[in-house]
Specification:
The chain is α/β, with parallel strands linked by helices. This is Uroporphyrinogen decarboxylase.
Length: 365
């Protein structure tokens, strides 16, 4: 399959999420974290057995091992560094724990404007996250050029939701309350997060990351007006400043991917936000998305992850339809979001095989 993403490497692929799989020119990558199928894999349990989640994130050796595990199981063409988007709030001084069966928890979330005074200077965040850079460098060494390595971070609005809500939420009502009742404080927090993210992402590239992905996982909770006011400006700023930071540091530019889940109302704006790739979830029709973003941006997506509960034969049919709908130009085959812990790894393999098979047929035609 054709794509524009042959950036610093030749005909290699890109891209993370909870466990995303992508394909470029008929090759496949996997992006996995603790919420993916690795949670139930023997290798993952053995690696994590003696440590809690964030202790694992702070171990370069453990992160390297967990990054390499999917490559041993599937014929993938890229790796995504094992980490978590919430290491950034931690580096800003907030306590974050991973509660079994619940997910991330902030014992002392941001409740009042004065709580912003508790946050550390964002200029210190990159130095606090040196363990991520060490993990990237170690993993690049272990990969020895076999496949490219991808770095990532959460976008400012998504990080803000966790810091204000104190964890996951189905409504994001506390975070949205800030936007309506404390708009200036909200912008202050979003600027702090942007100021922290820029050197962090530049540092990932300096450490060896060959592409970057930004996850605006909670875009859909905003709607067009709030998104344009409180999310999009910071998404743009991250891209602009990271690219400038790479240039100032004498580093080569790398592809950048933006994935705003349920952000279909802002596709045109995202396509012009300074990213080479726009990710789509499964609620967006491929043909309509292409019409809206034009021909200069690569699209990524967008099989419903629950399709992997189907039979392997049905998965093959769904993949074929997806590839036909997107067509061969400027496209990365992918799930529309992350895998779920109870999904059968064999069905992940069926997805990978189907993308390989139908990509070859599409190229031949």
């Amino acid at each position: 399959m054709a794509t524009a993403l042959v950036h610093p490497w030749k005909r290699r692929s890109l891209g993370r999420g909870q466990a995303q799989i992508q394909s470029i020119t008929g090759t496949v990558l996997a992006f996995t974290d603790s919420l993916s199928w690795r949670r139930k894999s023997l290798e993952f349990r053995e690696t994590r057995a003696a440590q809690d989640f964030f202790s694992t994130c702070r171990s370069p050796e453990a992160c390297c091992e967990l990054t390499l595990q999917p490559l041993r199981r599937f014929p993938l063409d890229a790796a995504i560094i094992f980490s978590d988007i919430l290491v950034v709030p931690q580096a800003l001084g907030m306590e974050v724990t991973m509660v079994p069966g619940k997910g991330p928890s902030f014992p002392e979330p941001l409740r009042e404007e004065r709580d912003l005074e508790r946050l550390r200077d964002p200029a210190t965040v990159a130095s606090e996250l040196g363990y991520v850079f060490q993990a990237i460098t170690l993993t690049r060494q272990q990969l020895a050029g076999r496949v490219p390595l991808i770095g990532f971070a959460g976008a400012p609005w998504t990080l803000m939701t966790y810091m204000v809500e104190g964890g996951g939420s189905s409504t994001m009502s506390q975070a949205k309350r800030w936007l309506y009742q404390r708009p200036q404080a909200s912008h202050q927090l979003l600027r702090i997060l942007t100021d922290a993210l820029v050197p962090y992402l530049v540092g990932q590239v300096a450490a060896g990351a060959q592409a970057l992905q930004l996850f605006e996982s909670h875009a859909g909770h905003l709607g067009p007006q709030l998104f344009s006011k409180f999310a999009l400006p910071y998404i743009r700023d991250v891209s602009k400043r990271v690219k400038a930071g790479l240039q100032e540091a004498g580093l080569a530019p790398v592809p950048m991917i933006i994935f705003a889940k349920d952000g279909h109302f802002a596709l045109e704006e995202l396509a012009q936000a300074g990213y080479e790739v726009v990710g789509l979830d499964w609620t967006v029709a491929p043909e309509k998305a292409r019409e809206r973003v034009g021909k200069t941006v690569t699209l990524q997506g967008n099989l419903d992850p629950c399709a992997l509960y189907a039979s392997e034969e049905e998965i093959g049919k769904l993949v074929q339809q997806m590839l036909n709908d997107f067509g061969p130009q400027r496209y990365i085959a992918n799930l529309g979001h992350g895998l779920y812990p109870d999904m059968d790894p064999e069905h992940v393999g069926a997805f990978v095989d189907a993308v390989h098979k139908h990509s070859r047929l599409l190229r031949q035609n």
